[in-house]
Amino acid sequence: MVSAVRILDKATSQPRSRFNLGSATTIRRSPGRTQLATIRIRIPSVKSQPNRVELVASVGVRGVTGIAQVLFRIFRDGREIYNTLQGIESSGSEQNYIVTFQAIDRNVKSGSHVYTVTAENQTANTKAVIVGPISFSGLAVKTRS
């Protein structure tokens, strides 16, 4: 049986629309974090259960020194709901990456929710920078069988 969905809300953020070495931002070392983008999704009412919020982020990253292990996290209302780790190589190899990942947040309570995507470098003596583009989007849907 095919599941039907109804769109509850959609939000997008694109703080950087292109690759630009001139505006590179260093990814902070853990436990510090570099905030990349924020969106707000509204779930209208309890009658919107069951639901899911589909989140997609793409981040342009450049390796500068060593092989940085960059931890990307997604937070809902300040609470981590998803993370993924990506190795970013530097000189002598590939240096520029577009890291894309998707997360699904299920059965979100009604109300307005802030989703934030961050990055942090977990490897000492390495450096990686955000060079763009950055995009972050969320689609909230009501699901039913």
UniProtKB/TrEMBL annotation:
It comes from the Bacteria. This is Exosporium protein C.
